[in-house]
Amino acid sequence: VTDQSSSFIDLLIARVGAGTVRTDAVVVDDESHDEALGATAVTPRAVVAPERTEQVVDVLRTCTEHGVPVTARGTGSGLSGACIPPDGGVVVSFQRMNSILEIDEETHLTVVQPGVQLDQLDAALARIGLAYPVYPGEYSATIGGNVATNAGGMQAVKHGVTRHHVLGLELVLATGEVIRTGGRVVKASSGYDLTQLVIGSEGTLALVTEATLKLVPRPAFRATVLAPFPTLDEVASAVPQVIASGLAPSILEYIDMLTMAAIQREYSVELGVPSDVQATALAYLVVRMESDHDDRLDADVQAIAELLVKLGAVDVYVLPPHAAAQLIEAREKAFWIAKANGADDIVDIAVPRRTIPAFMAKAREIGDANGALIAGCGHAGDGNVHLAVFQRDPVARKRLMLELFAAGIDLGGVISGEHGIGTTKKPYFLELEDPTKVALMQRIKRAFDPRGILNPGKIFDLEDES
Ligand SMILES: Cc1cc2nc3c(=O)[nH]c(=O)nc-3n(C[C@H](O)[C@H](O)[C@H](O)COP(=O)(O)OP(=O)(O)OC[C@H]3O[C@@H](n4cnc5c(N)ncnc54)[C@H](O)[C@@H]3O)c2cc1C
After folding, report:
1. Model pLDDT for residues 379-388, shown as the tens digit of each residue
2. Which of 425, 283, 403 is nearest to 346 (CA)?
3. CB under 6 Å to ligand 1: residues?
4. Is the pTM of this model over 0.85?
């Protein structure tokens, strides 16, 4: 049910203040989309930019009363269309709720508002030798967006993903009620874990207005090792063994030859790998080691280098700090390179680590059978492959995508490791996911949000909204 009358906007303005609401004439283009390839932009009917939780309460009360859909937005860096509102929907932009409320240096936690950006938090923590180690590739992303997508990133191989670092949340329910889940405790066995339920729910269950996050000491020393391999299969086979070695890299990424060539071209990264080695390498592993002790780091780097050679690396290069930083940054921007080169879709399937070689072989087979080029890189240490799919024909592409997702699931994997389902992966999710689980998720959604106003149409539809 959507209230189309202008009296709804008047009421909203009366409750939250004129300076907090912009209607469609002054909504900027950026607020109508995220970065998902192939998602259709929708201009919201209004953008509300609250400064306080009470204003979020007022928005949700008003929207529930009038049956108006509400979609939360961080910075719109998402890759699944999840922050795009449905027609007639209101966007709640959290960019003005961007304060770091507290950093507790003794117990290593921070309390932040949802609009705090990763780069903002990192700059504040760097000054005091701490880090929030979940560091997905787009540093403009917000903590609210990270919580709602259960964001991962390169360091997940060592530190885990967002859900491993969120201790507690303040949430506004669709009814306007405010609850606090979890808190500063490091453990809890007190009924259902609502914090974990909301993490990854893509703004469909509640709006996050505050998060309490675990921090770690910032490592003093780091080194980045680049290992070219003759084949992608050898890289894929090496990954589980690097993990099993117990050397605990903080980054373990693979980059295939096409992606590496594009990265070097676009970002002029100088890696010092001789051209004859580059000519034989079909894939690379990037391994970062960290330690609080210089000599321990040296020993770990030596050990990882020996292991990589034993596992088939052509050679091993410890990158100078500047080149290492450039390569990591360029790898994080691989999405933009794929997009600029005309990629038609991106997948972020996660499979059990030991099945990466089988999945990569299957992906190649599926690409060939559907006349597509598939190139990529990814969080190999997490079994999370980011593949750019080049296939212009939408029918062939849809078939290919379905086959790719099905292959991942057959190996015990999931459709999305970190980007979420949103709208772009919804058809595949609904076709391949266990219907009993989807029905349970729909009932949970109804329990949180009886009128179905919170980000409707994301992940799945409810019977009366498709
Ligand atoms: C170049 C590039 C690299 C990337 N690399 C990674 C990566 O390595 N790992 C990774 O996981 N992701 C990555 N991403 C994806 C993206 O950055 C993440 O999904 C991020 O978590 C989105 O945050 P955001 O603030 O932009 O959220 P948005 O895109 O604005 O929103 C994402 C979802 O969160 C919901 N939401 C936002 N704020 C709230 C709130 N306060 N309460 C409730 N729901 C809310 C929205 O409704 C939507 O469902 C990358 C994106 C780009 C463009």
Report:
1. 999 999 999 9
2. 425
3. 34-35, 71-79, 82-83, 94, 114, 136-138, 141-142, 144-146, 148-149, 151-153, 202-203, 207-208, 332-333, 335-336, 418-419, 455
4. yes
